[in-house]
Write a structure and sequence with these properties.
Maf protein; 32% helix; elongated
């Protein structure tokens, strides 16, 4: 079924994803997934036993899109493309989610200090019941961080709603020696791949 509305639904609470979509001129409406039957928290973001980071991030992105699509149907909203995404940081095949407290944030940054880790972002586009998905991978190399610097950073609010406990576009930029991949993907939405997905389902960009 052809897309007739150039606006999309964004099934994400991330302010970074909103900023990135605005950057490329995509018009969107937020789906916060709060209605009966499709509430916040409906997607369980707990990794399953033995689940590898790639499989994990793709599963969560897919489930967010499916919850978003269910919300559209529940609310009897106009049919538009639903976009979702999920980002995780991984090192040694370990998934680093959002730190729950300063101790966890400190432990994550100590783990990342002086080495290269991976940032995985999966993007899903649903046009009616047709789902298309990509996985984008970037390598990020941190310089060696002193304990004092880590504790000073973790005293800020910045680490606590970010996978891996840092924001590439924030004060943590000073930690990063090298990036290979997609800067916007590390922020949470790889714009090159996202543009391709949206264009394939008929969303005009530029």
């Amino acid at each position: 079924m052809a897309v007739t509305d150039n606006r999309i639904y964004l099934a994400s609470k991330s302010p970074r994803r909103r900023e990135l979509l605005r950057q490329i001129g995509v018009e969107f409406e937020l789906l916060m997934l709060r209605d009966e039957g499709v509430r916040d928290g409906a997607v369980d973001e707990t990794p399953r036993d033995g689940e590898m980071p790639e499989a994990y991030v793709m599963r969560i992105a897919r489930e967010k899109a499916e919850s978003g699509r269910a919300a559209v149907l529940w609310r009897k909203l106009p049919h538009r493309v639903v976009l979702s995404a999920d980002t995780t940081v991984t090192v040694d095949d370990r998934i680093l989610g959002k730190p729950a407290d300063p101790d966890e944030a400190v432990a994550m940054l100590k783990m990342l200090s002086g080495r290269t880790h991976q940032v995985l972002t999966s993007v899903v586009v649903m046009a009616h019941d047709n789902l298309t998905q990509i996985l984008q991978r970037s390598d990020v190399t941190f310089g060696t961080l002193s304990d004092q610097l880590i504790h000073q950073y973790c005293a800020l609010s910045e680490p606590y709603d970010k996978a891996g406990g840092y924001a590439v576009q924030g004060q943590a930029a000073q930690f990063i020696e090298r990036v290979s991949g997609s800067y916007s993907g590390i922020m949470g939405l790889p714009l090159f791949e996202t543009t391709q997905l949206l264009q394939k389902v008929g969303i005009r960009i530029l």
